[in-house]
Amino acid sequence: MDGEPIDVTTTRSLWEQFIDRLTEKIEDTQMWTSVATVIGRILLILIVSRLVLIILNRFIDHVTSERETTRLKLRTRRVQTLGRLLKNTAGYTVNFIVILLVLGEFNIQLAPLLAGAGVIGLAIGFGAQSLVKDVITGFFIILEDQFAVGDVIQTGNFKGTVEMIGLRATRIKNWTGEIHIIPNGSIVEVTNFSVNNAIAVIDVNIAYEEQVSQAMEIVRGVLGKLEDPNIVNTPELLGIQTMNAQGITLRVTVECRPNTQSVVTRKINEEVKRVFEDNGIAAPYQRMMTIQQRADMVDRTGGA
């Protein structure tokens, strides 16, 4: 095999030098002291950051508690949403400071890093204008208390219960279980069904053959005995709403808790139907009228 011969002595000398340097490093107590100091500082930073985060979360919970909310005359739904947002913000802020402090322990220059991050953030801001729009819109949604977690809202074609409000997107769950994640910048118009009491409108139909006064008395009796935790005030029978070919319609209105109109409507319909059956009040039904011409009526112009 062609080539220069391997100098075994030189190789052994280099290996011995490497072992000697490694031994010196291992036996260097000053280095191990510095490493232990850095590790100790990092552990101290992590422990202190966790304690600070726990204290901040407890302080936020204390401020947003029902007792404090009542004393400060703040709306519970708004405070709960702000509480979640403040906890997320506090977590992000504390974790960001921890990362900077840990990098500082490794003698990494933070000034150029922060300057570079600022330039990158500016470039991203120009390229992600929709994201900036989502964040700004989300901030004003929470600040103006347009809706909160737990509210039933409708925006565009989406209707459901708000499960999460973030600075970028809002998550809505509809009654059939689907989850809709909507960017805040796309929320232009919102209908909130959970702020004020709702009015349930119930139409009760009866046949023309029935006595209207009797039917109305029966309905009033049902409404007076009705018990439901969702009903705020006593239901009211307004009177005859319409009269058409199908029958007579009596209209009932009742003030109920937000977003409970369907539950109250079904309950009243059930009770009215049961009482109508007990009292023999018939519902409207299809009618057919037959006109029979008498046999002695003949067209004189064509008859004999």
Note down, in words, how this protein is organized.
The chain is an alpha+beta fold and 304 residues long. Among the domains are: 31-108; 144-192, SH3 type barrels (Roll), CATH 2.30.30.60; 198-279, 2-Layer Sandwich (Alpha-Beta Plaits). It contains 8 helices and 8 strands; from the N terminus they run ααααααββββββαββα. The strands form 2 sheets. A 5-stranded antiparallel beta sheet has the order 4-3-2-1-5. Strands 6-8-7 form a 3-stranded antiparallel beta sheet, covered by helices on one side. Helix 2 runs antiparallel to helix 4 and helix 7 (212-225) packs across helix 8 (261-279). The radius of gyration is 39 Å and the shape is elongated. The model is unreliable at 68-74 (pLDDT under 50).
Describe the structure using short key phrases.
Alpha-Beta Plaits, SH3 type barrels, 8 helices, alpha+beta
Q: Main β-sheet, in a few words?
A: 5 strands, antiparallel
* Uncertain residue segments: 68-74
Strands of the widest sheet, in order across it, are: 4-3-2-1-5
Shape: elongated
- The CATH top-level class label of the domain at 198-279: Alpha Beta
CATH fold-level assignment of the domain at 198-279: Alpha-Beta Plaits
SSE arrangement:
Elements (H helix, E strand, L loop, with lengths): L7 H20 L1 H35 L2 H7 L3 H30 L4 H18 L1 H15 L8 E4 L2 E8 L3 E5 L5 E5 L7 E2 L5 E9 L5 H14 L10 E9 L2 E10 L4 H19 L25
Antiparallel strand pairs: 1-2, 1-5, 2-3, 3-4, 6-8, 7-8
